[in-house]
Design goal:
158 residues, Hypothetical Protein Ychn, Chain: A, two-stranded antiparallel sheet, five-stranded parallel beta sheet
Amino acid sequence: MSATNGKLKKVSIIISKGSLEGVYPGLIMANGARMEGIEVNVFFTFFGLETVMKKRMDKIKVATVGNPAMHIPSLVGILPGMSSFATSQMMKEMDKLDIPPVSEFVEMIHDAGANMYACKATVDMFHLTMDDFCEQVEEVINVGKFYELAAGGQIIFT
């Protein structure tokens, strides 16, 4: 059972987007779940792998093109430096709330007991190896293994 007396016991969070606004919701949810004593599995797939790639995890940017929540025309979003500017502004606001950078957040969540996995199909498709990932990634697993780990809990897709 995933819940006892109305309390959730396990969640498995899928992070599939590689933009700042695609990565942080899953990390925040994973952190919050661990702080509540909930078992957490985080599965990184497709561009969500950027979250745990050593060379890219602290270079993730806000998507300024095709993002209606930016409230700017896409034409403005393609201007050189716009994504970097939007990312800088967002990071300033997150810093005010004491939200850590991606690498620090991943380490903190893992140290709190969350399990972190990379998607085998995506790893193979992008020709990656375990050496590409931060040490918090425990294993590269296929979808079947993910479902085994997720059994009895809630799956959250961000």
